[in-house]
Amino acid sequence: MHLIKLGGSVITDKSSEKTLRKGALYRLTKEIAASGEKVILIHGAGSFGHILAKEGKLNGGFQGEWQFEYFSKVQKDVRELNLYVLSALLDAGLRPVSLPPSMITIYKNGVMEHFVPDIFELYLELGMTPVSFGDVVLDKEKGFAICSGDHLMSALSSLKGIETAIFVTDVDGIYDRPPDEKGAKLMKEITPNSEIATKMLNEDVTGGMKEKIRHGLLIAENRVRVRVINGLVEGRLEKALKGEPVAGTEIRWSSHD
Ligand code: IP8
Fold it and tell me: Given the CA of residue 204, which atom of ligand 1 is nearest to it?
């Protein structure tokens, strides 16, 4: 069984509010179906969440009642994106069930305090494909918090039987500096001791590649194989799901794993 995160940068155009990349989304869901593998699917918020979440300063928690409108709008918009993902999965012949984080998690001071992973397991046992996504959630101390898809990936990685966690992004993997910078080198492997020279341009409220590395290492600690791959290149997700080699970065707990 595999955990997949379809990054918001792959399934949406992050520069333009609420813009779906329908072609990429439908191709990726078909690749999941074609692999024949059992998966839990997580997706990012992309331009359905990050733009307004940043404007409403939702990541910092409650500062004033003016933020409630942003909270409600972001929650509605990420659900809209989730509906597109569910439609694409159904179209690919899968049987998705949506599990919005705001209904299954409570945060305390930015940390996930309550989480119900059992519900994912039970739906999997039933034969369905659980789907969750980056969302705005309740925080007992800060009022509200951002629950990122990366965080859900690490929270779910302790479930029984997870072999691989695949982060599907819009670049080939993790680079030693921003990928568009001259001389940027794709890192084949990252361990806790790797010198990550990436300055990680950070437009995301939940921290872009830096968070991916942090959660990736937490997942690898559970002895789950972690791969970061490019979802814009046809066939890579399907191959990664079948355990075949593809260009990308592997995050390992130690280089001897
Ligand atoms: O796209 C962020 O989740 P991510 C969720 O997985 C919101 O980082 C609402 C911005």
Answer: 8
